[in-house]
Amino acid sequence: MKKLSIYLLLLIAGWSLTACTESHDDYPQPEVYAQGPLYNVTGFSATPTAAAGNPIDLATMPEATTTIKLFTMTRGTLPEGVVLKDVRLEAWPADKGENVSTKVVATEEGMVTRKGLEDMIYAHYGKKRTERTFKAKLLADAVSGTEAQLITMCSFTLRVTPIEMENSYYYVFGKVNSADAKAANKAIMTPDPENDQKFYFTSMFASSSDILVWNEMYWKVATNNGTKNAVAADYDKVYGMPSQEEANQKPMSGTSFQGLPEGTSIPVYFLAPTKAFYTFTIDLEAKTFKWELLANQNPTKYSTMTLKGLAADVAMTSVGVAGKTGIGTDKHNWCALNVNVAAESLVTVASGTTTWGFGDADGAWTVDYDQDNMWAKYCTTTGKAIKVPAGKYNIYFCDITGALHFVPVE
Fold first, then answer.
1. Whole-model pTM above 0.85?
2. Using CA of residue 231, residue 235, residue 240, residue 246, what is the dihedral sign?
3. Residue 312 neighbours by CB under 8 Å, 6+ apart
4. What residues contact 34, with CB distance under 8 A and at least 6 apart?
5. Angle made by CA atoms 22, 24, 29, in degrees to the nearest 5
6. Residue 283, SS3 per DSSP
7. What is the per-residue pLDDT across 20-58, written as a single tens digit (0 to 9) for each?
């Protein structure tokens, strides 16, 4: 009995010792050690140049200047058989995390290309004339066969302003690969007053919509001013869905894709969830989109729309009729193209006895397309006349939301 009692006590003690350990594995695990460097790499460093520390305005650089020296690199020592490869900047917006960094190819002489910086900005922002601040690291790889060791040489801040390739008021969308691109749908989107990278469009959408988001300048380049079809190379700055599979699900919101998804020859269209009136929103910085179903699915219909206040009234044409697909399949979005305003005028938009304007006094809105959001406003039927400076404009109007746009004709 004594022996049995001793065995029981030893067994209980064993259980208690096991319960106090933090490991619950049935078998002990081999000890893991941190992996050390593959090779002995020494002496690599870099110092940012004065150009890197000052604001870089790509628009004021001489046209012949295609590269910029951003750092001076000191080359260290590599073991025999090890080579230095892939010198690059990893850069990301200063207000975001390093996990969204973009690669900018660099040389050992410290040079990066103007295009590399442009692409860095466009990966996160539009090419509006706005200074963007990035954090950057200079990296390279020490490579031997299939093995590579990362070398970090310096970190610095970049402030870069892009060439004015696009402005917020130039974003348009519509079908682009029709038999005749000139006849494709095209309608201006309304900018968010608080976010110059977010845009809206309200319309009746077909359930088989073929919606893409374009910039006006890229539209002109890709279609040669509307006289030829766009080709694959033209789609770099077009926004659509990440894949056809995702588009076919017709989600109410999701992620947009810039350029051509892998394996496609044309962008993948946004598809409306149903045939109905929606407001479509896209955020080009966040690269997201959403569809919002209108509470009123029977908005007032107007048979005509007219721009008043010029030397002669200008009839507006509805967008997206005559068998075209996608947007504006019911008369609610209107346009008048190449309207010549010979002298400063006070204008309104009208249909019959209903008139739209802005503000509580004539000229409360003076159109100024050199200033953000002064080219587009939401008008009301109680608003007053709008002051439009002399010039030539493409004018767009949505009678559901009252969004009125004056886009300058270059």
1. no
2. positive
3. none
4. none
5. 95
6. strand
7. 444 444 445 544 444 456 678 889 999 999 999 999 998
